[in-house]
Amino acid sequence: MALVFLKLGGSLITDKRAVATARTPVIERLAAETAAALAQRPDLQLVLGHGSGSFGHVVARAHRTREGVHTPADWRGFAETARSAARLNRLVADIYAAAGVPVWSLPPSASAWCRDGELTEMAERPLSTALAHGLAPLVYGDVALDAVRGGTIVSTEEVFAWLARRLRPQVVLLAGIVDGVYERDPLLDPQARHVAG
């Protein structure tokens, strides 16, 4: 069995110029392509992840959730951020399921624990069990409790890094809106050097 991690970038699956706006046709195309790849390679195991784009990022930025959660207003913002990220996750999960990909959403906030913004604990057994039974676990950027900050954000990349050390994927794919890999964001810095792809 070959284990693949596939992350759908928030800029790819949402329109970051408009709050809480999914790029549904893009998600549908990606789901169809993923289903076709799994049909061609029944030996593949897949962990899916996605960014929060114009959903969770916008709310988290407004409440400064990554920096810490201490006041009653901060905690309400923490919960609002979680709901916003979960809305996008539900949409992605429904589209992938409709395409025939057996996704199971596993919100990182259910088991993640951080210390001063660094992910230190997260349950991997649900993911490994799901994979063993032919499901495609679906994770995403989410809120997390934090021993120092009260609460914070864990990105999909941080979740993937945590899981990769334990599940050992053969391939990690990051799908974004730019063609290839750059040293910096080429949309923000046109001088960014193309390094691969």
Describe this structure in words.
The chain is an alpha/beta fold. It has a single domain (2-196), classed as Acetylglutamate kinase-like (Carbamate kinase). Helices cover 40% and strands 25% of the residues. It is built from six helices and eleven strands. It has a five-stranded parallel beta sheet, sandwiched between helices. A four-stranded mixed beta sheet has the order 5-4-7-8. A hairpin with a 2-residue loop joins strand 4 (113-115) and strand 5. Helix 2 (24-40) packs across helix 4 and helix 3 (53-63) runs antiparallel to helix 4 (72-98). The longest helix has 27 residues, at 72-98. 36% of the residues are buried. The model has no long low-confidence stretch (mean pLDDT 92).
SSE arrangement:
Layout: E1 2-8, H1 10-13, H2 24-40, E2 44-50, H3 53-63, H4 72-98, E3 103-105, E4 113-115, E5 118-121, H5 125-132, E6 136-140, E7 142-146, E8 150-154, H6 156-167, E9 171-175, E10 181-182, E11 194-196
Parallel strand pairs: 1-2, 1-9, 2-6, 3-6, 4-7
Antiparallel strand pairs: 4-5, 7-8, 10-11
